[in-house]
Specification:
- The chain is built from eleven helices and five strands.
- It is of the alpha+beta class.
- It has a five-stranded antiparallel beta sheet with strand order 2-1-5-4-3.
Length: 271
């Protein structure tokens, strides 16, 4: 037990109440034994500084109650009721100190654990903001609980919108509305539907997403035990761009159809 103001508050308050009650009872007017008030003081002491302070306060109030009964006008100190009164007060005060102290310890441990978890989450969040891989954590309802700095930069996502826990579909529509994807407009709806379907199914198949600014991100979805999803957007621009073979132009034309103007958009579309 640490000896600070919390540790001495209970014993000091019990001493003050005992002194005042004995003085009033003997010098002014007869009053009832303040046993109920003593129990409250014991609970306060244990809640402020733990079981040890509560038990010390409990011992003090039991002694104070016995002294009070010694000089009380209406009760003989040698009577059985007086003795039972002191015994019951001792049991009640001790039980109150122990129970309140244990509850305080449990609460303190819970608060300490919560602070540690919060500190860990803060450090992890700061670390994820330093990497160039876009990270999005979704809850079981597919709402974004965390969006790191890289993803916000890739898709020009304002902090206000990112911090509002938007659903995954809203992030997809934001990319569409800002023209982030290098896709023809008539393919955007299908692209969004397919990405949403894969995310909901927890499909971990990597997909390359090409952006209008020339970057290529490898999208991957990981299903989490709590029903949520972790989405990662890894930059693979150099890897993918160097593997683009201009000799494959005729092949893509035959597969996609369309003239030279539409070919550029198709060759650089999100796969």
């Amino acid at each position: 037990m640490r000896f600070d103001w919390r540790a001495i508050t209970g014993p000091a308050l019990a001493t003050l109440v005992a002194t005042a009650s004995i003085f009033v009872d003997r010098s002014v007017v007869a009053i009832p034994n303040p046993a109920a008030l003593y129990v409250c003081i014991v609970a306060l002491a244990a809640s402020l500084s733990g079981t040890a302070s509560g038990l010390i306060t409990a011992g003090g109030v039991v002694l104070a109650s016995a002294l009070f009964l010694l000089g009380h006008h209406a009760v003989s100190s040698a009577s059985l009721p007086a003795l039972l009164h002191v015994v019951l007060l001792a049991l009640t005060a001790a039980a109150t100190a122990v129970i309140t102290g244990l509850m305080r310890r449990r609460m303190v441990n819970a608060l300490r654990w919560e602070r540690e978890q919060h500190a860990t989450a803060t450090r992890l969040s700061s670390a994820l903001d330093q990497v160039d891989i876009g990270i999005v954590l979704l809850d079981a309802d597919t709402r974004a609980e965390f969006i790191n700095r890289a993803f916000r930069n890739y898709f020009s996502l304002p902090d206000e919108k990112a911090d509002s826990k938007p659903p995954f579909i809203a992030l997809m529509y934001h990319g569409r509305d800002t023209g982030a994807y290098e896709l023809p407009e008539d393919e955007l709806s299908h692209f969004i539907a397919e990405r949403t379907k894969m995310m909901r199914a927890g499909d971990s198949t990597p997909i390359n997403i090409r952006l209008k600014d020339g970057q290529v991100l490898r999208f991957s979805c990981t299903a989490l035990p709590d029903g949520g999803r972790m989405l990662s957007y890894t930059p693979v621009t150099d890897l993918v761009r160097h593997t683009d073979d201009p000799a494959d132009t005729d092949y893509y034309l035959s597969m996609r159809g369309g003239g030279h103007r539409s070919l550029i958009g198709h060759l650089r579309a999100a796969e």
